[in-house]
Queue: 4 jobs
Job 1
Amino acid sequence: MFLIFSKLKKKTMDVYTTNLVVLKIIKHYQEEGQGSEVVQGVLLGLVVDDRLEITNCFPFPQHTEDDADFDEVQYQMEMMRSLRHVNIDHLHVGWYQSTYYGSFVSRALLDSQFSYQHAIEESVVLIYDPIKTAQGSLSLKAYRLTPKLMEICKEKDFTPEGLKKANIGFEQMFEEVPIVIKNSHLINVLMWELEDKSTVADKHELLNLSSSNHLEKSLQLLMDRVDDMSQDIVKYNTYSRNLSKQQQQKHQYLQRRQQENAQRQSRGEPPLPEEDISKLFKPPQPPPRMDTLLIAGQINNYCQNVKEFTSQNLGKLFMAEALQGHN
Amino acid sequence: MESVRCGAVEDAVISPAPIKPACLFACLPQTLLISTTEGTVLSLLSMSVFGPVVKIHPVVLASICDSYERRNEGASRVIGTLLGTIDKHSIEVTNCFSVPHNESEDEVAVDMEFAKNMYELHKRVSPTEVIIGWYATGFDITEHSVLIHEYYSREASNPIHLTVDTALQSGKMNIRAYVSAQMGVPGKTVGVMFTPLTVKYVYYDTERIGVDLLQRTRLTPSRTNGLTSDLSQVGGAAARVQDMLTTVLAYIEDVLSGKVTADNSVGRFLMDLVNKVPTISPEDFENMLNSNINDLLMVTYLSNLTQAQIALNEKLVLL
């Protein structure tokens, strides 16, 4: 996602987080998330000066078939109450979610983030991409909804006219916030200790040359989305065609009416009453455009990821070529 | 049998526990039970010296440090429960949470309700984790530890006790694990001894990559680090490999010039290293390289095209 420099007076808040949160998120996905299931959790922290500090987090249990969502609220309440006893910040500042190949732009995410942001203005959603991380570099991104999108969600006006009024494009839905990892001195000491003690060899997944698997899957998802998009476009096209046809019909009807009235007047009869045209010609339902926006945003995201991936791989391939050339 | 073990184990902490003789009989079956649950018919002797290996994930340590930093005023140390899984010969510690407690000269109070509650909540998220022990910050094992350990031995069979020296008394953060064992002459006062276990650090793959990044925060003066972008990461990784190669080269130079005696095992590793580079004929390599590059370029072109397409579509709709 592009980093949008907001022209509004409010500066986007940076997000500071600590080692603990990162490790917990990684662990949660590793243990509970298999395949394309999504794991979620809550972020805790506080807002200090001009930054949002995330100091702790806890995971949400998966949605299981038994127990409905009575668990959710109660679990959250109990967890926060208990954490307060041990002096952990219990202020909700956002939530995190894992993603599968970058597909997280969905209605559910939008709704959740909207409710969070409505309550707390600076809340973020942290998206953790485990597959990209497994390829060699930690992929953790923080997103917020732009103020424009917040407006639209508040009014729930998703018709084309509404969106045109707000002048929002798919690039202006989310804004990415840079994450900075900051640790206390004690954690620093811990890091030094671990470096000392642990004997794990340094594997270099980042320099791995094989790319086809990842590319295939990404392209597959991209194609699915593009299919969805094209369906949506077809729907919109039929709608606009219907609308224009209806306009024409209305026009013709009005003309005929006028002609008839003129004739009647010439014959001396009273003119026909003006009928309510809107009842005769019911305007077609405009299709909601929010889904299209989301799909466009998702496609954009996929394309960005693919481009990042290919640029990395091109670099690696050229390096390999240079090395081979020396043999 | 316990007295034999005393002499064999170094660095054990002995503390007389106020256990009455009546409790001895209650404890004995428990200790015997431990040996059978371990799946070994060997005596406790071997289990304590070559005890189960304790594998710790970095999450646990980070969590302990964090709870230490957030402790209440006046509390000198923090305790909490360790969660994890037990294998045949190793105990893997994957999670933990702190438990509020009060400690004074002669008594210690632990909020057990809280501990139970938290464990229930944690179980909802990860049902495979069980209570395997407890941790405490601080260097020594005190008498209170024994009492707390007894409480935990009710929750879990043979709990382990982890100490993390967050006050850095000896200049290092000593992370040690202990398991308790009975000692003393049977029939008279019995003591409890904490015998140390080997501690290893394990990581999941993704954890290790995360930790690699987090390690870089050590080096900046403000202890901060941003997450870098794509190509610079590849550059960074390549630089690291280059560093390693220079170290290896320096070593080889030293060996060749006679400064360092050659080590056979290192030599074998170097042989492996050199043999790993595959010998491919240049044309084959060219072909492979070109096809790969073409794939990547095509995908880049397609994704750019798609992005342009959706941008256009949007402009058209908004007309």
Job 2
Amino acid sequence: MESAEDWLVESLRLYQDFHAFDLPGATRVLEWIGDKGVFVAGYEKLKKNEILHLTLPPRLSVKENQGLFPERDFKVCHGGFSDRSIFDLKHVPDTRLLVTSGLPGCYLQVWQIAEDSDVIEAVRTIAVHEKEGSLWPRIAIFSSVAPGVLHGARLSGLKVVDLESQKVTYTSGVSDSEELSSLQVLDADTFAFCCTSGRLGLVDTRQKWAPAENVSPSPGAGGGRWCAEVRGQGPGPSIASLCSDGLLCLLDPRDLCHPVRSVRCPVSTPSPDPELLRVTWAPGLDSCLAISGFDGTVQVYDVTSLDGMEGHVEPLFTHRGHVFLDDHGTGAAPLVTTHTWHPRKPRTLLSAASDASVHVWDWVDLRVSR
Amino acid sequence: MPEIRVTPLGAGQDVGRSCILVSIGGKNVMLDCGMHMGYNDDRRFPDFSYITRNGRLTDFLDCVIISHFHLDHCGALPYFSEMVGYDGPIYMTHPTQAICPILLEDYRKIAVDKKGEANFFTSQMIKDCMKKVVAVRLHQTVQVDEELQIKAYYAGHVLGAAMFQIKVGSESVVYTGDYNMTPDRHLGAAWIDKCRPNLLITESTYATTIRDSKRCRERDFLKKVHETVERGGKVLIPVFALGRAQELCILLETFWERMNLKAPIYFSTGLTEKANHYYKLFITWTNQKIRKTFVQRNMFEFKHIKAFDRAFADNPGPMVVFATPGMLHAGQSLQIFRKWAGNEKNMVIMPGYCVQGTVGHKILSGQRKLEMEGRQVLEIRMQVEYMSFSAHADAKGIMQLVGQAEPESVLLVHGEAKKMEFLKQKIEQEFRVSCYMPANGETVTLPTSPSIPVGISLGLLKREMAQGLLPDAKKPRLLHGTLIMKDSALKELGLAEHQLRFTCRVHLHDSRKEQETAARVYSHLKSLLKDHCVQHLPDGSVTVESILIQAAAHSEDPGTKVLLVSWTYQDEELGSYLTSLLKKGLPPAPSGGS
């Protein structure tokens, strides 16, 4: 394909490193284990899906003599089979356990990575008492000596379950049935939630339900679906929320009702599948975030360069690999299903698309003269 | 019990020494005969003593098959055939036959000259070994003997690489060697028909990987070359395989054109000389499509790529040079390397595995100081890049091939069983086949149910039909008869041969003792049957060829003797004749006897 060749030549300038892989099945999950491995999982209906633990090519991990490592391939370290579609997967830190959520059926599956072989086996389920047709519970892990799984499809169903004893250690106790779009554990006692309506909250599990939150949804809600992410550390507003109509808001946790900045991103709207919306903060760069879920691209923004108004914004970088390297040529262009930043390498991201491709790319900051 | 037995040879779990023994339908075939490149002693060779501790390999093995010219598949061949001893046929494709001896000789030179090894195979041994080679064409059914046939299929991977089907009667095994399912620019992808073998044997070294796309590898190559040339540096690319070199040349040429780059690209003379030779091999090997898009153009009709002159190496400014040999162990590539190694702006791109002892191997191990001849120390400041261009089948590729061939069972060699449990489950679930993963030296036995064609005599069929009911296509009918089997079928089924003997009694009037009757029979037959071997044995019995005649007294009538004439089914004709002869009676005894 001519345009693929053109794009590849362009890519010499745009990327330091670029790898492209074809998974056996598309994934909506990219979950890190350490900084050398990721989990992916299939989400097809009516078919056996695979959960794979992949190690990144060694050349991405070494600092020196990178040139002496010819291997550019992912290695399948462990694999398992799931009868259900998997929409979310979390690794329980410092253990060999995974928790997944999907459909059909509203329950969480716990998996164990075998020690002496390469198999990932289902070990038990965690019941979720909400009976929901097409909603699946979001999950986040409280990692500690006794890890707990935070889960829920709606605010009313939010619970923390002890992984070992299966006892419920926390429940939101509210009757509010707003649908959740994301959950994020912030520290040993607090977590953040984001509802599909755009309602955000920070919850302290030591207290009865009294989250710091925005009472009314952010402007521009009009039927759009929201997701959000809280940044670990760094200066400036630490919460980013994204709407399926392209609105990106930056918020300070001390005043969730008034976004510090709101901009409209140049994306094709509405997003064909708002459930795939994702916004992530770069762990290694002070003020960068990435968004995906509108089309076959991932866009990187520098938040300090965004205007205060809903003005004209341009991404710092756009990854178009999934669009140009689409070999399948049949039907719709691929849609990016998820993306994630490399924990250590500041400008390296992984992105996955609906055509089962996974890219590992290290973009060049063109503002910096080399 | 009919079965197929497979044993990967060699000690330990180490990869890198392909040699597999297959027993099928009573035939024994050795698949590949590779050298382990990591060892310097006997561990580099497969353990041939396993095959047969007594007895000659030539008698035991029906043939040897070599899948392609990589040393980990053919490196031990001269050792095996000339030093251990094997005189039977060795099958391989034409390009493999052409290239193997060159690589073996190169390797021998490095081992003996550079590393000073003793007890290595000699140049003459390589030549003698190659004399035993029978070259085969793709998709050509080759009859090794009456029962054993083999057929080669296109495997991609490198020039001349093939997958082989080995067939005895209705049982077959397919061995893949190394192959790849994603096409290269110059090689294309492996292909096999729905041959439904009992067993598919495939290498699984890369079975647990998911391969980075070819485009990204090419991109990486272009990026490295471009960056070096942009900063005024020189790029050296040592190559052996012409196909690979040409592929990279086309890549660079397209890129140079698009980016309007001016730095010169050169193709060294060593390559030029071999070019025509390989070109001819190539042209008959690749398929129509590749020939059209890739091979048709003249080797050196590149706009930007010119023939190299060694004086150019000293020219200032950036350039790219393709030179032989591929491991930097001698010749032009080493010369150029020595000139350019000291400048950090320069780069050498090693496109493949380098044998221990070569400069290529040393720099790929990270060595930055090399001792050259005359104790000169060379400091390496140039950038060293190791790029892997040859394609192997990854997990996806293996699944694709299994889907194409539709075997009853799959056997994975050269992987660690514990690290392939998931793949085993995947294959078993997806294709509903059994998947085996033997360690080196471990034998896998697959029971098979071979189908053996049976001919029925028309008379037998007619007799059955005469019994009334017409044959019903859905209902089986039981026939009674005598089944006669040839040796090979017996062997396949593991049955012992039965001997059918007929015994006939002939009564004679003779009141003499049995021994005398026997003696009369002997002299009578001796005089009549001049063309046959008639003998009188010490125990009194008479033999005509293998027919036995014994005289016994009649239990009730002392005046009658009973001749027991017995013969095997094979001697039916003679036996019947003898019987009728004897029934006519014996000539009167010469008078004067007792």
Job 3
Amino acid sequence: MRKLFAFLSVFPTLKDLMWEIDWSDIISTVEFNHSGELLATGDKGGRVVIFQQEQENKIQSHSRGEYNVYSTFQSHEPEFDYLKSLEIEEKINKIRWLPQKNAAQFLLSTNDKTIKLWKISERDKRPEGYNLKEEDGRYRDPTTVTTLRVPVFRPMDLMVEASPRRIFANAHTYHINSISINSDYETYLSADDLRINLWHLEITDRSFNIVDIKPANMEELTEVITAAEFHPNSCNTFVYSSSKGTIRLCDMRASALCDRHSKLFEEPEDPSNRSFFSEIISSISDVKFSHSGRYMMTRDYLSVKIWDLNMENRPVETYQVHEYLRSKLCSLYENDCIFDKFECCWNGSDSVVMTGSYNNFFRMFDRNTKRDITLEASRENNKPRTVLKPRKVCASGKRKKDEISVDSLDFNKKILHTAWHPKENIIAVATTNNLYIFQDKVN
Amino acid sequence: MEDKVTSPEKAEEAKLKARYPHLGQKPGGQKYFDSGDYNMAKAKMKNKQLPTAIPDKTEVTGDHIPTPQDLPQQKPSLVASKLAG
């Protein structure tokens, strides 16, 4: 079955694109909720925008619900650490949804230092017919009240409200890079460069440190934590990745402080191939468990690797994202692009993985057919249902028609954040400041 | 027999070394004016090599004496995201 992805929508929807990219508009995270009905984005300005999928029109079964803006709020504000004379950015590093328990939706959002639990609730009724208040809120003179009535709830225009329910602060000395909700739905972890903490969603005044890799002497620091995630089913298991390309799996039942890993995943390197860049490009920028919990995927600068949790000594699958960049590492080091942190994601059935690249390209790898595709997120394919044309980068030599040469790639157009709907073939792709939503074309 | 085929990575490394001869070198191999100069150079190198490691600023508090110009403007958070239309 060939998958063809077609354009669905792009945000902002404005046709006039002449504004300059405001620093605060840069999208920093994208995440679907557990049902896929809601899609949240965070930006450098500390704002969260949530999109909601339209309820499917059962008659028109070929058209899946489109996403419209549902709610937007300011999650984090810039702060100043007076002790260190440092600004604390309001940029949202990660958003993670809680599974829905009641009518309201809950998500965790985090910047470098503080995690917040937000409640998003709908209000579509309001009480009317108060005895002591007029409809506009003005108070009535009690002496004018001659009869009593019972206020009733009447329908009103839908209002979506976001309110912060918990603020988890002051637990991280270094910059938070990951948050992950445990499958027990009661606890979650937060990870910074050197430490991982375990929180209870109800308790904000304390958290447990479960990993601490800070050396006694900071001069000996050689490795930092880059990402961490709880196992989707085993509430005692989590993994964390490092800047040296290793992944450690820890079991919280083994000890309170999980400095000693239960498993260490590392691919052996050919020492003769080692270069100045080897360690930098091996740094893992993202780690994600498969929905099944059997596999995990890691993203390093040039590739995506799938690991079987039962095998530590090498990945079971490796996919090259943009191998043609290997001969450009010198300039990519000079312009700092070599330090870009790309994320990766699984589709709902764990059969396809996706990650971003440069020039607003993103890549998908089908694990079963071993086929891969490169697509582009751009406003040129703006008409709804337009099928995306596969792209190809020409590494060297003769460039065929429609191919793009490595030297014409725009390295400022990076797709770092992508997300896949948990159940359907709908994907959200964030360019610098635009959010694209694509869905597969049902033949 | 000399191996003439260099991996692309090694070729890029050679390019980099040609442009920045002192990169990756231990600070002892170079002349410094004083201990302050030495520590600054070491901190700068560490910063580049460990991209996700602690940035200098969390260690070198004394370097960052705030002046009124340095203090961030508290931006009003009333500007809505453009994604929200």
Job 4
Amino acid sequence: MSSERAKSTNHLRETDNSGLNYETELTLGLPGESRKQISGTKRRTSDVTELSLGSSNNCKDDHSKNEISTGRAKPLAKTQVVGWPPVRSSRKNVIEKCKYVKVAVDGAPYLRKVDLEMYDSYLKLLNALQKLFTNCLTICNFQSESKLMDLTNGVEYVPTYEDKDGDWMLVGDVPWKMFVDTCKRIRLMKSSEAVGLAPRTPVKSSSTS
Amino acid sequence: MAHSFPEQVLKHLFSFLASDKERNSVSLVCKSWYEIERRCRKSVFIGNCYSVSPEIMIKRFPEVRSVTLKGKPHFADFNLVPEGWGAYVEPWIIAMSRSYPLLEEIRLKRMVVSDESLELISTSFDNFKVLVLLSCEGFTTDGLAAIAANCRNLRELDLGESEVEDLSSDWLSHFPDSCTSLVSLNISCLGPEISFSDLERLIAHSPNLKTLRLSQAVPLEKLPDLLCHASQLVEFGTGAYSSEVRSDIFSNLEEAFSGCKRLEGLSGFWDVEAAYLPAIYPVCSRLTSLNLSYATIQSPDLDKLISQCHNLQRLWVLDYIEDTGLQALAASCKNLEELRVFPSDPFLPEPNVILTEQGLVAVSEGCPKLQTVLYFCRQMTNAALVTIARNRPNMIRFRLCVIEPRAPDYLTLEPLDAGFGAIVEQCKELRRLSLSGLLTDRVFEYIGTHAKKLEMLSIAFAGDSDMGLHHVLSGCESLRKLEIRDCPFGDEALLANAAKLETMRSLWMSSCSVSFGACKLLAQKLPKLNVEVIDEMGPPDMRPESSPVDKLYIYRTVAGPRFDMPGFVWTLNEDAKH
């Protein structure tokens, strides 16, 4: 069984340059894939096995303890293994301000949570969302709008959020801090469905910058 | 058949049986005792809502007045159970609304509760008295408004640490003035807005109120106004405990606390302004319970406070208390039974406080009644654990979390096997244990050999092989709940001890090495178990049988497979059509 451990410690660690060594419970929920798939695309077996072991990554052996702090709101040194240390989220708020919001992706079975206080810009948030929801979501800057795209099937996702008033808005319109304050939850909506939302530069009084 | 006592006599005798265990034993004596007992049982506890169905419960126990249900597995507290997994209370409420018109009490833990369910509760049970929702979610303040408006005899409303969506702050106004029955109100989990005047009015017409836990939204300056209506309080939770430092606020606050002659427990203390701590000094000597786990106060303020609480039996605190504070605690609080030390900032690379194994050792030496411990720290030694075990053979619940996974004894660099081994060997009454640090299969051998009264065991990042799991499953006779994450345990131990699983409430394993094939086999061998695989990757039968499943939850049930599962949960059961 020691080979199991070796496997998991050799595993892919999703370090990225921004120091967001963000590990979440599972890395995949390919967007666009329906939940109750009976016959469907077979997942690549080797990927699947690797990733499911890899999701149990802990950081002991080859994870470097050199913190990469890049102007994040919160200095985060160690890899955050999901659910460790076993502290309830209501307790995590004690020291640092913490604002967890749920993130849903159309078509993915799982919801995730992100702590908005960990980021200080929309770009960093999008980076994190990209990491959270699989390697195949890439940020495309398309006509100066930020979108996420699933490269395997070309489906585009637009990040949207529900604000304090219960309205669904496009992410990116208001100053970052105001967004953090007002965002209740995030949904990566398929572009094709995001038509009815408030336009890019809304004339809403609540979004006075 | 020998003469038996008339039913009336037996019923009367059974009414003296307090615990479910006793009533369960009595019901096994003979058929007629089973029948008599079941018809007069008033209170039912269901530790896993999927282990039995509402219909089965109602059929067996027609006269129930109080129901307790627990839903999601414990690891759900740490985000290991995905949203939508289940534990919906609605079918229970619907069934009970039809069959238990006299129901008085509902207590739920880790369940999903909708506003519709709350509304149904509020209108179905005329004599409804107690609603306790611990770590629940799925409801809003609209549901609470229905409870407030319709439950004329409400005694207890406890929202625990639930996630409540705050739609309006005026739900409290739905309590009619004629409702004076409230004894306990815990709204500490609620959000940033609350109607203070509604709250004040409610408290003013609740002369029987003994427990009041406020939310952070209630400002410090308002506390005297509330406390003057509630000087009979026994348990009080403050809101945010800070304000501009002013002597008039201070003296009002101090006077208000002094007026609470029956106060035994304090909690809350979000956002503490240390200058206001002395306001509670008048009550400290009476306190038996103090929850400072949200209070970011440090020595000397923290130490001064605690040193006055000589009668403390329970203390929850942040690691700001440090070793020195724990030494002071050990010196002043000789009645201490429970200590929980939470981490203030577990993700920092370097420790921000000096809280080590020494603090826990000091408390174990100084507090002879210490029996319940939850301790987060960054370093531990075998020697410390051995000392703690020797000092406190009366330990019942011991949960140690060394923050770094697989951290060894920092002095000898050895695994912590010997230390935890001493704990289970010395503490013969140990019922709950959580392990951490570097641990080999050896520690599980100790546990299997000695921990005969252990009922709940939590394991993370530990062990070398299936032998570890085998020791636990084959040795721990009283084991009811086992939760494991990130351990190299696979198929062998599980299959070899399959029958054990039917004697337990549940088993959780995530990020281990149990294969899909083994899960299927278990499900086939043991039809009274639900073997659930949680996997986001898609249907597990699309992959080779040898692939490990990501998360596995196995529990015994008489209700068969459930049908309310989301798309990422598969029940492996020959009968289940999924």
